[in-house]
Structure formats: C-alpha cells, structure tokens
Amino acid sequence: MSTEQTIIQFEQVTKRYDDGETVLKSVSFEIERGKFYTLLGPSGCGKTTILRLIAGFLEPSEGEIRFDGKVINRVPANERLVNTVFQDYALFPHLNVFENVAFGLRIKKLKQAAVEAKVLEALRFVNLKGYEKREITELSGGQRQRVAIARAIVNEPEVLLLDEPLSALDLKLRTEMQYELRELQRRLGITFIFVTHDQEEALAMSDEIFVMKEGTIQQSGTPTDIYDEPINRFVADFIGESNIVPGSMAEDYRVQFAGKTFECVDGGLRPNEPVEIVIRPEDLEITTPERGKLQVKVDTQLFRGVHYEIVGYDEAGNEWMVHSTKKVEVGERIGLDFDPEAIHVMRFGETEEEFDKRLLAYEEIGHDQ
C-alpha cells in the first residue's frame, strides 16, 4: 500500500485500562482513503475501542496511531479530522433538525450564510431536504440516523466513524439504510469506518473487513476473501454458516475427511498433517446417495423462505448443513455433491501472518494455491 493512499495507521497499538484489563493487544493495520471499512466481531472484542482511539476519546497504552503520517496519540478529539456517529445518535432533543446539524458549525463561529448553505447541503446529501424545522421527537429511527450523519459530514471530516448505528432499527429499515450508507460513502468519497457485530452488514457494505476476537485482528480482506478463504475456525464460524469437519492432507490438492479422499485446490501443507475442512452450506448440492461424494441421513429440515436448511450426518458422524431449494424428508438418505473449489483447507490455529507466509513460500516454488 502506498503512503499517499494511507490515511490511518495503527502500529503495535495496545490499550490497557486502569483495572489491568487489556482490550487491544499489539494491533497493527492500515486504512486507505476513500474506502468503506468494517470492524467486525462479537461484543468485547475491541472494535469500539479502536474507533474511540481514532476519534481521540482514548489514548493508547502502547504503540502509535498515525493520521496522514503524523502521530496523533495525544492530539485532542476536537483537533482531529474525524467525526463519529454514535449508536444512540446523541442528538439534542431540544433542537430541531437544522440546529442539530448546525451545532458544530456554530461552535466554529461561522457566519450565518455559510452555516445555512452547509446545513442544507448536508441534509440534501442524506435525503432530508425540507426537514429543517422538524423536531427530533417527530422523526423515525431512520430519519434520526440521517440527521446524525448529516451533523457529522457537515464538518467535512476526512474519516467518518460509525459505531453500530443500525442496531436500533428494525430488519427492513436496517437493510434500506445499508444501501443508503454505502451509496452515501461513494458520493462523499471519504473514508468510512463502521463497527458492527452483524456479519451480513459487514459483507454487504464493506470494501474491506477486519474480523476481531479478544483484542486482536484475526483476518482482514475483502468480503469475498473473508467469506471464501477464512483463516481459522473462528472466522469461518463467525462469517456465515459453515460446515467444519476434521481431516488431513493426503498430498497437494488432495485431502481426506469423512473417511474418503477428495480433490481440492489447496496446497502447501505436509502429507498427513491434521487440518480442518470448511464447506459452505450453499456449496453442497443434493443428489441421490449413489451419485453423491458423501452420503448423509437427514436429521432436521427448516424452511427459511428462499431455501430449506437441511441438517444431516454422514457415516463418520460429521454434521452437514445444506441450503437447498429441494425439499427432502427427515430420515431420508441423500447424497451430497460439491466441487473441489468448494473445499477450503485450514491449518489448526493458523494466524493470518502465518497463512500469508505459507502462501508466499508456496507461490515462490512455482505453485498456484
């Protein structure tokens, strides 16, 4: 990544609270300009702490945070070119929409004409033109969120931080706001850093995702990379539904699991090395037992609207989940077919750094993993 593209850098950043709890552990990453990033992980993993460190609400215990190449560890929040949209929006109930959005501009003592122009432009950006005189209590949840975003972007930040801003909305409105936020980011052309524990939100909206667990970044990459090539069991299990079964490498491009040997597209591991196998439910096709690579007895079946969620067990006792439009019967024996590309091989406990080194070494000897 070129230095000109990089706007934020974390270099071995640790955050430790006064009670001794360490919530971030030597975290390093870079953020590029003009992209939509998501910090994804369960509650307590450190994602909101990263947001607060960027915003200037916290200082790191160790390491450096850089903005445009300059260390900002102790730069006050009001001097940083970032703005935050909080989970509860933090709007002023005694001010109308216009005055909520204008609040930061008034603190800067801009002239009234400039304030009016900037506020109206920000409201137009978030599709709230004509709402200037509305009271906050008169707005829906989605409209309040738009006001909070307008208040943030009116100050022309280089980075917009969003701390789970969709969590209070119902499912339909959350989906609508995902599209709106993504489109807003594209129109503004600034960097968005979005915090969520919802993997569907992360996959739908992001240019790049950081998957977090217990104060560390487990894996980073595009939504496709994260979903198709999870680095370990935690990522595979956290990002969507996964079938994860034990296996071992037979040789490059051949792996053993469920008592059989299958072709795959992964290499770079030792023969007989224990591994974990990931196959997504939608990559399994139901066929007859005779034609299937695996034979499974159906245990449960649930209708999920667009597909059936079928769970069964193979002869080795492995559980398999299948997403299919085909309806089967509980107790029925079915075959499961899949392509070699559907098999993802993971080394036990491998970190992203170790995976990258293995991939690089494998490519250097003339193989394409």
From TrEMBL:
Keyword terms: ATP-binding, Cell membrane, Membrane, Nucleotide-binding, Translocase, Transport
A GO molecular-function descriptor: ABC-type putrescine transporter activity
Keyword Translocase: yes
UniProt cross-references to InterPro entries, sorted A to Z: AAA+_ATPase, ABC_SmlMolc_Importer, ABC_transporter-like_ATP-bd, ABC_transporter-like_CS, Mo/tungstate-bd_C_term_dom, P-loop_NTPase, PotA_ATP-bd, Transp-assoc_OB_typ2
CDD domains assigned to the protein according to its UniProt record, in alphabetical order: ABC_PotA_N
Entry's Gene Ontology cellular component terms: ATP-binding cassette (ABC) transporter complex
Location of the ABC transporter domain: 8-239
Descriptive protein name: ABC transporter ATP-binding protein
Lineage: Bacteria, Bacillati, Bacillota, Bacilli, Bacillales
